[in-house]
Amino acid sequence: MKLSTKLIHAGIEPDPSTGAIMTPIYQTSTYVQSAPGVHKGYEYARSQNPTRSALESALAHIENGRHGLCFSSGVAATDAVLRLLVPGDEVIAANDMYGGTYRLFTKIFEKAGIRFHFVDMQEASAILPHINANTKLIWAETPTNPLMNIVDIAALAAIANQHKIMFCVDNTFASPYLQNPLDLGADLVLHSATKYLGGHSDVIHGCLVMKSDELREKLYFIQKACGAVPGPQDCFLVLRGLKTLHVRMDRHCSNGEAIAHWLRNHPKIGKVYWCGFEDHPGYAVAKKQMRGFGGMMSFTLKDDSVETAKKVLSSTKVFALAESLGGVESLINHPASMTHASIPREERLRNGLSDSLIRLSVGIEDADDLIEDLQQAIS
Ligand SMILES: *Cc1c(COP(=O)(O)O)cnc(C)c1O
């Protein structure tokens, strides 16, 4: 089955009791048993919920995995993966990634005795010097947030497999429509479904997808034991979002391409970070592992002052100034003070994330209106 068909049908059955074509929101905390221990596979809603099961199954199909697990946020899904580790274990993570992931790693799990190495992974071999007997997890994001760097998933997977290290890819930015890390050898895929999967800026949700039964059992135990599960209404919203992912992503990609090129030709714009440019250092890898380049990009102004950047950020009318990404509406964001404020300034600057960087999540409005809005904000 092709992805566009899977997005609408995979893992979804008409409701067995009524035939409802849309998965009902099973708003219940518990399930009646006919005798102690005799039930239909549902005991208590932290452990199992039919709306959640439908979504978990759909996600597994869409990412070409065998199992999906849903969480109350992307961060909760990340937290579940890190809970597989024990004090003394080490993690190699990208040096340019989502601020909330960095915060969770350094402020929560470092205290719990996990050691992190933050590495520029654009050359996969750069992780080699950091591997030792304690290395238990490699964590990558691609394209990275907010600098749109590309890492080679297959090359990292080869190294991870050779050293028997678990490899997790945060696939939030690309979405399963553009990239499937499990096909390239990753063990785990993470999504903040808050973004493209939900797609309508109306839900906080996270998920993991994997092939291994053993890994699924361990993570299911954590999901149930720690309890960061999403409610059924939130699962319903993500299920509904999935059904239009392909149509939305096509427009995100075409609008993204139009805006990236327009920005690049604008006399007041400095550098544009978008992985679809042929001279982007990761272009060849992006072309190999992705089916499109998406609607996420960042840029700086030639007048590289924070004040000028802030003026642009406050002047757009169609682009809303807000954190988050991946919704139908276009957003503009200042990583240094918003999404990435939890990363220390020196660390940010060292990784190329300047105070004047502006990030766009290009939505699915008309590209001409978006360009006109940026034009008036920049001029
Ligand atoms: C938003 C985001 C997360 C965290 O997800 P939440 O749903 O906000 O908890 C993780 N990774 C990336 C790349 C994100 O953009």
> What is the CATH topology descriptor of the largest domain?
Aspartate Aminotransferase, domain 2
Strand content: 15-25%
Mean pLDDT: 96
Name the CATH homologous superfamily of the largest domain.
Answer: Type I PLP-dependent aspartate aminotransferase-like (Major domain)
Major sheet attributes: 7 strands, mixed
User: Can you give the helix content as a percent range?
Assistant: 25-40%
Strand line-up in the sheet with most strands: 1-7-6-5-4-2-3
The computed structural class is alpha/beta
At CATH's second level, what is the architecture of the largest domain? Answer: 3-Layer(aba) Sandwich
Which helices and strands, and how do they pair?
Blueprint: H1 3-9, H2 50-62, E1 67-71, H3 74-82, E2 90-94, H4 99-109, E3 115-119, E4 135-141, H5 153-162, E5 166-170, H6 175-178, E6 188-192, E7 206-210, H7 213-226, H8 232-242, H9 245-264, E8 269-273, H10 283-289, E9 296-301, H11 306-315, E10 320-321, E11 331-333, H12 345-350, E12 358-361, H13 367-378
Parallel strand pairs: 2-3, 2-4, 4-5, 5-6, 10-11
Antiparallel strand pairs: 1-7, 6-7, 8-9, 9-12, 11-12
